[in-house]
Amino acid sequence: MSQLSKSEEELMDMLWKRKKALMKDLVESYPEPKPATTTVATLLKRMTDKGFISYSNVGRSREYYPLVKKRDYFSKKVNGLIKNFFNGSASQFASFFAQETDLSKSELEELKKLIDQEIKRK
Length: 122
Known about the structure:
It is a single chain. The chain is mostly helical. 63% of the residues lie in helices and 11% in strands. A hairpin with a 2-residue loop joins strand 2 and strand 3.
């Protein structure tokens, strides 16, 4: 699976939230200053070509919808990050994540609880 650019990811996130949307609704979702309709159209075309989204015709408009689940996309992205930046070592990644992000003690405890649950599940 190819990657999305930052601007494509932002647009994809809008689609994941809405589940399906017309281009005019997507343009409206952007904060001011809104991008040009042609810019959004270009992003939608690239994302369609990459296989992330598709559309169905609704009258004279296209209704876009995601083909990839958000969880699947970010799972691949995080796994790629671990592979490329941490030599495939999940523990190196976890160590970096725990030390370099500004997590509170309660957030770290919540993470530990999630990890403990996952250990029991396996």
